[in-house]
Amino acid sequence: SFAYFTIKDRLPQILTRVIDTLHRHKNEFFEEHGEKGVEAEKRAISFLSKLRNELQTDKPVTPLEDELPDAALWNQYLDYQRNLSNGNGEPSWFQSPWLYVECYMYRRIHAALVHNPPIDNFDVFKEGKAQNFFESQEAVIALCTYFQELLKNIKDLDERQLQEELFKLLQVSLWGNKCDLSFSAGEDRSQKSSLLQSLEDMMPYILVNDMEKLWSLLVNTKKRNTEKSNVRVDIILDNAGFELVSDLVLADFLLLSKLVDEVHFHGKSIPWYVSDTTKHDFNWTIKQLQSANHMWMSRCGINWEGNLKKGVWVYCDHMFWTLPHDFSSMAEVAPDLHADLQKSNLLLFKGDLNYRKLTGDRKWEYSVPFHQALNRFHPAPLCSLRTLKSDTQVGLKPGQGEQIQASEPEWMVSGKYGVVQFDAVL
């Protein structure tokens, strides 16, 4: 299965890159922390080399031994996996659900650093994320320029034109999700050219397109909420770099078109899946745009800093996003987060990992309804913007998946296809 090749080939590659990154920063650790820094680097590398060996030789998954607040939840989840195996031996790297062991590897990478101060705050993926941002510069400039030009006449747009612009920016945010470094094991996945030019050509590759439903929801919510309360959209982020910029543009458009009053962004509390957005990445990206020597890029950065100061944009992270649990167990495992999401008028889930957690990462029939696969996870109306990079997909028309499969066996994992898949709360 695709899962098998991911665990066998891609994850060891990622670990090797992490070890290499630490090794390359050895002098920097020495300059900052002296011998202590070098000792910490050696210990972290030894921990990660052992982890890589466990993975490659299909050893049992071991409980976490750190004192971090999520350790108990991880270890309970391991017990749950043990019970699932009905005494057929310990859960091991190749004999466990892909989603679980993949998340577990990233959590262990985090442990390798946290255990080894003074380098415990070092993000082993930071360089790759920064590089992705700089290599996507042309696409970022094109998007910021388009957006700032659009804002000049946003007040004069009628409803149909607003809808058209929203659909464009939703598609840019969707296809921005191709830039995923965990998918390429850290190889370059930057967005080299402007996406806006190719939206028309990519339209046939959107397998489920519920943009009309999103539009209706936003317009009707706005009409109902004239005075009462703020209309709020939450974006559950995926990758830093170009994708994050496309999400920020979409969020600002929602505000400035007066479709919503506030946007809450949810990122990861620890470095995750190579290129996932952390608070540092979020703030760093806005700072980079602010200080860019391109007029429209810096205008975006300045305005977005302003949105955060005014409180119309809110950034939050929660440990639940870096647990192995499906979202259907959120109400039980993270009731505070679930209650917060219930205050939202719309949840936008970005990317493949969020889709896998929404649908329990199961091998569903393609035509199973999205609503059913969510397994009672409905804190608010929600929509997944996702390019397909793993073999789980629901909500297709009968025969649609089989038809593509016949001519393109790799269709579910190539990132070539996407969905804008909506589910209202019933």
Write the layout of secondary structure elements.
Layout: H1 2-24, H2 26-33, H3 35-56, H4 71-84, H5 98-114, H6 126-135, H7 137-152, H8 159-175, H9 199-202, E1 206-209, H10 211-224, E2 232-236, H11 242-256, E3 262-267, H12 279-290, H13 295-310, E4 313-317, H14 330-333, H15 335-341, E5 346-350, H16 351-358, H17 370-373, E6 382-387, H18 400-407, E7 418-423
Parallel strand pairs: 1-7, 2-3, 2-5, 3-4, 5-6
Antiparallel strand pairs: 6-7
Helix pairs in contact: 1-3, 1-5, 2-3, 3-5, 7-11, 7-13, 8-11, 12-13
Catalytic activity: beta-D-fructose 1-phosphate + H2O = D-fructose + phosphate; L-glutamyl-[protein] + S-adenosyl-L-methionine = [protein]-L-glutamate 5-O-methyl ester + S-adenosyl-L-homocysteine; beta-D-fructose 6-phosphate = dihydroxyacetone + D-glyceraldehyde 3-phosphate
EC number: 2.1.1.-, 3.1.3.-
Domain Damage-control phosphatase ARMT1-like metal-binding: 6-404
Describe it.
This is Sugar phosphate phosphatase. The chain contains 18 helices and 7 strands. With 426 residues, it is of the alpha/beta class. It folds into 2 domains: 2-115, Transcription Elongation Factor S-II, Chain A, CATH 1.20.930; 126-423, no CATH class. A 7-stranded mixed β-sheet has the order 1-7-6-5-2-3-4. Helix 1 (2-24) runs parallel beside helix 5, helix 2 runs antiparallel to helix 3 and helix 7 runs parallel beside helix 11 (242-256). The mean pLDDT is 95.
Strand residues, percent: 5-15%
Structural class computed from helices and strand pairing = alpha/beta
Strand order in space, largest sheet: 1-7-6-5-2-3-4
Please tell me the overall pLDDT.
95
Taking Cα atoms only, what radius of gyration do you get, to the nearest Å?
22 Å
Poorly predicted runs:
none
- Give the N-to-C terminal Cα separation: 35 Å
| Main β sheet profile | 7 strands, mixed
Q: Give the number of domains.
A: 2
EC number: 2.1.1.-, 3.1.3.-
Cofactor: Mn(2+); Ni(2+)
Catalytic activity: beta-D-fructose 1-phosphate + H2O = D-fructose + phosphate; L-glutamyl-[protein] + S-adenosyl-L-methionine = [protein]-L-glutamate 5-O-methyl ester + S-adenosyl-L-homocysteine; beta-D-fructose 6-phosphate = dihydroxyacetone + D-glyceraldehyde 3-phosphate
Protein name: Sugar phosphate phosphatase
